């Protein structure tokens, strides 16, 4: 099978010659994240990192890492009350951020020009974007986010409407990245780590904007993936996302304390991606230990509608030959378990 044929079969829950692998890591350090508009050198390293990685590992699934442009810039300096969020409008496609995101995507697409793997662009939900704008640091589990919490309490409808307007800009940019840049789909990062949004709030005020982005992407491509971010063990309630209608779900099964088989069942049989921890055996185990871990995952989940990956991004300094170890293990497993 070609890599594209293999992934198509995965998404259709059809047999494959071997289970594909999908491990991703950033190409810049955290201090350079979201700094692509200010630091030209970091922006270039972000792009060139893809080329250097390709020299070691020819991926089954390509995800364009937009480290330096992850979160859309959002001016919230004027926002004292939830009602002030009404001033936030959808991102225009001629703004500097969108223009640079398009440039990054086109240039990385050129790096992968001769690869036959499907290419995904990394996209973040409006909830990620707004929370990120309202704090210093990353809006992960345990972060102090008093302003966002206050807005949620003051006027949840104002928050929801703001998230939808932000999502309109996100969806419009994704449309360009797929139609003009040639990406095969979006790798859409969502999260509600440690239950930041109460379940009822998330369902009523957050998920509509996230479902909107996915629905708009689906009008263009049918290979879109939801990444439920379990960054460094920060768990999510996976059941919040079972009705998102993605082609596949990237799940942090270790952070959630579940298994790939259980996650696949939870999502109604939809394909799932994951299995490995971020910085455990895939990062520091021997080749035999990596093989055993891969086989254990496949023993649990089978080979239909499954992609081997990690809970989230693996360490930047990982030896990418280790991804080849996982791929070899998957091929060996398929040879010995031809029934799938």
TrEMBL record:
Signal peptide: none annotated. Coiled coil: none annotated. Pfam families: URO-D. PANTHER family: METHYLCOBAMIDE:COM METHYLTRANSFERASE MTBA. Residues 2-333 form the Uroporphyrinogen decarboxylase (URO-D) domain. This is Uroporphyrinogen decarboxylase (URO-D) domain-containing protein. GO terms for molecular function: uroporphyrinogen decarboxylase activity. It comes from the Bacteria.
């Amino acid at each position: 099978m070609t890599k594209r044929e293999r992934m198509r079969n995965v998404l259709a829950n059809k047999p494959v010659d071997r289970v594909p692998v999908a491990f991703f890591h950033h190409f810049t350090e955290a201090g350079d994240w979201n700094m692509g508009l200010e630091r030209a050198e970091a922006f270039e390293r972000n792009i060139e990192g893809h080329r250097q990685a390709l020299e070691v590992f020819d991926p089954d699934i390509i995800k364009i890492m937009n480290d330096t442009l992850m979160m859309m810039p959002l001016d919230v300096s004027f926002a004292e009350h939830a009602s002030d969020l009404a001033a936030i409008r959808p991102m225009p496609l001629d703004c500097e951020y969108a223009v640079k995101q398009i440039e990054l995507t086109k240039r990385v697409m050129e790096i992968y020009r001769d690869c036959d793997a499907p290419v995904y662009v990394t996209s973040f939900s409006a909830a990620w974007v707004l929370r990120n704008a309202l704090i210093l640091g990353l809006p992960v589990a345990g972060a102090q986010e008093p302003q966002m919490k206050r807005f949620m309490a003051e006027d949840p409808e104002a928050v929801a409407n703001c998230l939808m307007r932000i999502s309109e800009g996100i969806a419009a940019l994704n449309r360009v990245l797929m139609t003009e840049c040639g990406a095969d789909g979006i790798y859409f990062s969502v999260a509600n780590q440690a239950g930041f949004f109460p379940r009822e709030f998330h369902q009523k005020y957050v998920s509509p904007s996230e479902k909107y982005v996915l629905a708009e992407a689906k009008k263009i491509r049918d290979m879109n993936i939801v990444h439920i971010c379990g960054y460094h063990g920060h768990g999510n309630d996976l059941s919040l996302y079972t009705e998102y209608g993605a082609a596949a779900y990237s799940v942090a099964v270790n952070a959630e304390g579940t298994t790939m088989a259980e996650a696949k069942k939870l999502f109604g049989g939809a394909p799932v991606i994951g299995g490995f921890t971020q910085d455990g055996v895939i990062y520091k185990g021997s080749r035999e230990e990596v093989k055993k871990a891969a086989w254990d995952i496949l023993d649990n989940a089978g080979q239909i509608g499954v992609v081997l990956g990690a809970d989230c991004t693996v360490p930047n300094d990982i030896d990418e030959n280790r991804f080849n170890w996982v791929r070899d293990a998957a091929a060996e497993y398929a040879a010995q378990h031809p029934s799938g």
